Amino acid sequence: MGAGGTSIGRRALLRWLAGVCLSMLGGSLVRGCGGDSGGSEQLRSAVIGLDFTPNAVHAPIYMAVRERL
User: Fold this and answer.
1) Cα distances (angstroms) measured from residue 13 to each of 7, 8, 18, 27, 41
2) Labelling 61: which of 6, 7, 13, 37 has CA 20 to 30 A away?
3) Cβ neighbours of residue 58 closer than 8 Å, sequence gap 6 or more
4) pTM of the model
5) H/E/C letters for each residue in the chain?
6) Residue-wise burial string across 10-45, b where 16 or more C-beta atoms lie within 10 A, e elsewhere
7) Among candidate residues 42, 40, 37, the one with its CA nearest the CA of residue 68
């Protein structure tokens, strides 16, 4: 194969990659628009399990818990 074969392969790969990215973006937009909040701000609870000793990297988690209380 010459340089032309490589060029066509790259174009096909870029088209495929663009399609995948657009599909993921579209799916996330549709999923983000779902919900029936009705305009009221309701907080959801969540349980987070840390698999090691907490340290400074986990500060945002602790701040969120403290602000909610």
Assistant:
1) 10, 9, 9, 21, 43
2) 37
3) 50
4) 0.36
5) CCHHHHHHHHHHHHHHHHHHHHHHHHHHHHHHHCCCCCCCCCCCCCCCCCCCCCCHHHHHHHHHHHHHC
6) eeeeeeeeeeeeeeeeeeeeeeeeeeeeeeeeeeee
7) 42
Average pLDDT over residues 2-21: 75
pLDDT, tens only, 18-65: 888 888 887 777 666 656 555 566 777 777 777 777 788 888 888 888
Per-domain residue ranges of the chain:
1-33
Both structure tokens of 64: 């969120």
CA-based Rg of the chain, rounded to a whole angstrom? 22
